[in-house]
Amino acid sequence: MDIIGGSNGTYSFTVAQPSSRSPFGPRVTASRVPGDIERFRSRPDLAPAAIRITANSRSTARGDLFLEPESSPVQDGPEIRDWRGNLLWYKSMPKNEYVSDFRPQRLDGHTVLTWWQGFVNNGVGAGEDVIANDKYQTIAVIQGADGTHPDLHEFQISRRGTALVTSYYPIWWNESAAGGPSNATLDDSIVQEIDIPTGNVLFEWNAADHVPVNDSYQTPFQNVHHPWDFFHVNSIEELRDGNLVIGSRNTWAAYKINRHTGAIIWRLGGKHSSFSMGSGTGFAYEHDVRVLSHNLVTMFDDGAGPPVIHSQSRLLGLRLDFKHRRASLVFSDDHSPSIVSYFEGNTQALSNGDYYAGWGSDPHFSEFNSRGQLIFDAHFVSTAFHNRAYRFRWNATPSTVPAIAASTSGRTTTVWASWNGATGVGAWRVLAGSSPSGLRTVKTVGSSGFETAISIGAAQYVAVVALDSHGHTLSQQSTAIRG
Q1: CA quadruple 304, 308, 314, 319: dihedral sign
Q2: In this predicted structure, what is the pLDDT of residue 1?
Q3: Distance (Å) of CA 111 to CA 77, 136, 283, 357, 422
C-alpha cells in the first residue's frame, strides 16, 4: 500500500471507534389472508407468496418476473414467475432471513442469478451476497470485508467483474451540526467494490467522510446509543467513465463519486444540489437512482418517509443539462389508485422503452409504457413488501431431477409433476408399471404451470420425464414412487 502525505516519514493514525448495533429481531410476517401462498403436492416444502395480476397488456416487454417478497406469510424467498404469473423457480430462506435485490446479471460472459440474504433491523441489513449459475448452483458468496457485512439495498456486478455492495457500520460521531449529541452513534453508509474471488476490498467510500450530517432530512436521535441513519445509501450505479453514482434516501440526493479519490463530483437534489431543479423534479426519500444514456436519470421517488412529502410515490425521469447545470422533468409515472410507499422501491428501464417498478412498502409491481400508461399491474396477495422487482428474460435447466407425487383412488392414479427452476418444460412423459424396473410410457401431456396434475389408470409405481416443446428429453427419469 502506498501512503501519500507527510514530510518527515512519521505518520499518526486514529481508527474510528465502532459502536454497537441493535440486535436483529425476528422476521416480520404479513397477516394471513385467503390465497396468500401457493402449495404444491410434489413440493410440499415450498410455500411461495402468491401474486394476483390485475392488468396484463400484450404490449408489455418480454421477460419473466423476478420478485423478492420480504414479509411473506410463511416463507421468504426469491421467486421467478413467467409473464402469466406462473411460478418458475422458488428458493425458501432459512428462518428469520430475508432476501433482496434478486435479478440476473452478467459475470465472466455468463448470465448468473444474484441476490442478498440475511437479517434486517430498522431498514438496515447484514448478510451476504450470493451468485448462482443457470443450474441454480451457488458459485460465489460475498460476505463483506473490513468488519462490514453486505446490506440488502444493492449488489451489482461491475463491468470488470467485481462486486459493488452497500453496507452500514455504526460509529461514534459528532452530530451537533444537525442538532444531535456531540458524541453519539451514527450509522455510516459504506460503498465497497470487492474482488469476488478473493474478497479483497478494491475501493471504499464512507458517507460520513464526505457528506455533512446537517445535509440529512432525518432528525437525529437524542439517545446517543440509538444509531442515527443520517445518509441511508440504497443504490450504486457504475458510469461509463468508471465513476459511481450513489443514491441517498435520507439526504434526498444522488452523488457522483470519483472512483479513485472518493471526492463528490456533483450532487443531484438535496440541500446543496449542483443542478437547479426544474418544475416537477423535486424528490424525497428516493431509491434506485440510475443514469441512462443522454444524461437521463431515473429513480423511484417514494416521496414519503414518513412524513409524507408528496401525495403519491412515482417513477421519475430527469434530464441533466451539464452545460447550464439544470435538471428538467422527462417523465413522472404514478399508480392509479395512488400509492404512497414509505421505504424501498425501484424503477427498471426495459429494452422496449417501458419502465418497470416495484413499489417498495406496497405489494404492487407494475409496468408503464413510454406514454406513461399502466400496461401491467400485479401485487402480492398478502401485504408483503419488497425492495425491488424486475423483468428479465431467463432460461435455465436445474441440476436437480423433477419432483413427483402420486395418489390412487379406485381405478385412477393422479400424478403431480414439477421441476423447480426449469424454464423449457413443454410436456411431461408419465411412466407406470407394477415394479420399478418394469415402467413403461402410459401418457404424455402438456405442461401447465409450475405443477402439472396428470390422471392415469391405477398404477403401483410411477415416474415422470420432462420434455421440451419439441418432445426432446430434458431431464433424467425421476425416482419412481408407489402410487
Answers
A1: negative
A2: 36
A3: 20, 11, 34, 22, 15
Written as one string, the DSSP assignment of 172-187 is: EE--GGGTS-SSEEEE
Distance CA 387, CA 125 (A): 12
In a domain, 456, yes or no: yes
66 within 8 A of 392, measured Cβ to Cβ: yes
| 466: in domain | yes
The C-alpha cell that represents 260 in the structure block: 479513485
Q: How far apart are the first and last CA of the chain?
A: 67
The pLDDT score that the predictor gives to residue 112 is 98
With contact defined as beta carbons under 8 Å apart, do 398 and 421 qualify? yes
* Residue 431 belongs to some domain of the structure: yes
Nearest 10 degrees: CA dihedral of 51, 56, 60, 63? 30
The grid coordinates of residue 218 equal: 432525518
- How buried is residue 420: exposed, middle or buried, by Cβ count under 10 Å (0-12/13-18/19+)? buried
Q: What is the dihedral of CA 132, 135, 136, 138, to 10 degrees?
A: -40
Which residues partner with 114 through β-bridges?
Answer: 103, 131
Tell me whether the omega of the peptide bond preceding residue 104 falls within 30 degrees of 0, making it cis.
no
* CATH number, domain containing residue 473: 2.60.40.10
- Separation between Cα atoms, residue 179 and residue 378, nearest integer Å: 43
Other C-beta atoms within 10 Å of 253: how many? 26
Q: Classify residue 196 by its DSSP letter.
A: T
pLDDT band per the 50, 70, 90 thresholds, residue 15: very low
Q: Return the C-alpha torsion angle 291, 390, 201, 197, nearest 10.
A: -130
Residue 239 · residue 254 · CB < 8 Å:
no
Give Cβ neighbours of residue 468 (< 8 Å, ≥ 6 apart): 424, 425, 426, 427, 474
Residue 440 lies in a domain: yes
Range of the domain at 426: 403-482
Average pLDDT over residues 133-139: 98
Can you tell me the distance from the alpha carbon of 84 to that of 315, in angstroms, rounded to the nearest whole number? 24
Cell of 441: 410410457
Nearest 5°: CA angle at 126, between 259 and 348? 60
Hey, how many other C-beta atoms are within 10 angstroms of the C-beta on 241? 10
Give the integer Cα–Cα distance in Å for 113 and 135: 10
Total domains in the chain come to: 1
- DSSP code for 49: B
The Cα angle at residue 275 between residues 274 and 276, in degrees rounded to 5: 130
With beta carbons less than 8 A apart as the criterion, state whether 281 and 297 touch.
no
Please give the Cα distance from 213 to 10 (Å, whole number): 31
Give the model confidence (pLDDT) of 244-273 as tens digits.
999 999 999 999 999 999 999 999 999 999
Phi first, then psi, for residue 461 (nearest 5°) are: -130, 140
Cell (9 digits) for 9: 516519514
What pLDDT score was predicted for residue 122?
Answer: 85
